[in-house]
Amino acid sequence: MDHNELMALLRLTNESAQPNINALSFRLRNLDAMALNLKFFGYELAKALAAGLPHRPDLAPAPVGLKSKPSTQADMESDWAAYWCGQLNIPVVFHRKIWEFAFMLQALWERDLLKEGMRGVGFGCGTEPIPSYLASRGIDVTVTDLAPDESAGRGWSNTNQHTATLEHAFKSDLVSRELFDRHVRLAYVDMNDIPPALRDYDFCWSICALEHLGSIAKGLDFIQNSLDTLKPGGVAVHTTEFNFLNDQETIDNWPTVLFQRQHFQSIAERLRMLGHDVAELDFAIGNKPLDRFIDVPPWEHDMTDYVRSNWGDGHVHLKLSIDGFPSTCFGLIIRKRA
């Protein structure tokens, strides 16, 4: 059976627009509806849990001894995550992207790097609010992303995750235009070939970018190479995809690769051998309801405009299926040797 014949069997209708009656179609034709049921019940649970979180208007930053770790429901319910969400003017919702923002800022704060006069460089920044927030604190920031022509070729522009100009990084609710222009600059950078001009920063970061460099090996090399941008004792914070359920198979040599426990252990050992400090690796993935909710396609950008306008307000998850592999975010914290 060739591909076309198989696809004909999977169609919902035959050439006469009648129900496609065959054993394979009969078994599989309700899978999409079942996926939507799963998705939206999970989203409703996430919304209900977020609505039940206490109002915490007077929080202050506090040390928690943050480790290198995956995102969890407990993290998102914590005071430290709520504090950083408040700093970014975003609600606490159970979304892994928001966890990444909070993780990165908590890691830097615990290392006394969120203060005026510091210098930071972000890789693959896209439209994230971090540069504007850092600028509001008097920190000089270099925002980097792929050049627009390369981004379009890799599909990033289509998902609105690419910084074509500094306008995409400016968030007026976080910083004045004057402060932003004073502290933030844009550089087009290929993360597989970091230019030597990027040097002597106090910290660097990337948020779910290094899994898009072409392979697991390239992602791990980037983590090590990113330390070249730092002063001695500088700090790198990187988040990426974590295939937490399958230790035998994963995705590699693809536009989005999935790292496993062994890869984080390997890069930690490599960096420690070079004298760098890697925050303790904690692989606990949580055991609360949203830790066990694994979102599945279709994603919001895959929906029709009509369906998106009616059902596209969800998209709240800590874990999701990527090419069939349950995945979540994992954050690494590294201090360059002094």
From TrEMBL:
SUPFAM superfamilies the UniProt entry points to: S-adenosyl-L-methionine-dependent methyltransferases
InterPro entries assigned to the protein according to its UniProt record, in alphabetical order: SAM-dependent_MTases_sf
Classification via CDD domains: AdoMet_MTases
Classification via Gene3D superfamilies: Vaccinia Virus protein VP39 (3.40.50.150)
Top-rank lineage group of the source organism: Bacteria
Designated name of the protein: Uncharacterized protein
